[in-house]
Amino acid sequence: MHGVSKYIVRQPIKDRDNNIMGYEILYHGENQAYGEESGAEFAAADTIYNFLLQNTSKVLRGSLNFMTFTPTLLVKKTPRLFDRSELVMQIDDSVIIHPLAMHLVRQYVKEGYKVAVNEFQFAPRYLALLDDIHYIKLNFQELADNTLHNIIEISHSMGKKCIAVGIENEDLYQKAISLGADGMKGSYVAEKMATRAHTSGYLQSNFFRLVVALTKDEPDVDEIVRLISVDATLTYGLLRLVNSGYFALRHRATTVQQAIMTLGLTQLKQWVYLLSASNAENQFDAGAEEFLKLSFMRASFCAELMNYTSQMPISKSEAYLMGMFSTLNYLIDAPLEDILAEVPISASIKSALLNHEGRPGILFDLTLSYERADWQEISVLAAQLDIPTNLLTSVYFNCMEDVNMTWKQLTDPNPELELEPPEIPADSLESLN
Q: By 3-state DSSP, what share of the chain in percent is helix, strand and coil, each rounded to 5?
């Protein structure tokens, strides 16, 4: 495949209580991570600048973004694309040894921007920065325990926060906790929940069958109405949604049928998973919200990538299910194999999720590799699926925007239009069975 592959991905940074501190924006181009000044770096800087110019006001708003700035990006005044309350400027040696770049960093600090140092070292040029930085990032896979301990102790004594990076397993996670790291980042952190839901009954609910019914190529509306109507929490959530200020209805929807007519099946498909989960929020820990968003993000990304590949034994709707169900073993206290045995989905999806087999397995692995910013693997897997790599970033961030918008509408309904949970008459339930 010809041309330059440029990728941008967002990864969570969590605090010691498993809550989201912010997100690191990682980017890659010219077949290597941006960072070193070179002729190619100027072109790379243009790419990232133009992307942020188009997207910062949408998908990167409302959260704390940690992003590494090269001298070129600083000269282009890229930090000004962010609100100062939503940006942590990460810098490394390429900036620290660059007089003009460091002058610009100090100017941004005076204006209220925060700064983090990647790969902090006990060297004079790093120690001279301590007054101007707010976060210190430490690679827990490379530094010795005593070095980590000393840096964290000194940093805390000076009011700095330390973020442990490279946390890829439980041992590294526990080490970060014991040594006093304030935040953590890595594939293990992204997929960690403090507790799981303890709901054997959750598998018996109508939710899974409803999702499958919604994602059929030709959904049966009568079946969908029946499945929702016998679940009081789903019925309540659906009516609460369509009567919120977002839809500004002239008349309230009072039945499931009216609610579905208002939403349309396409929107209902995207919302119903989150509706069900939000009504079970007391079963999850503080990190569950991010996990539910992750499952929705994977579903959207897998489905959209189906537009650019071929020879897939699954449909676009099945790809959506594959992404959505990929996190169930974190949300439900049971092995994924047992969970999927309860769900009426195709063998191709099950083998992709459980064994990473077939072309659906390659699509699933591409989604995971993009999450982890595994640049080399992304290119290999995209080539196997004949997906143009230059499309991946725009597809990823379009999906992220949709997920953020959906989640916001779901979790922030108009408080003046709260509904009491509806009671379904017993005879109505019997007639639906």
A: 55, 10, 30
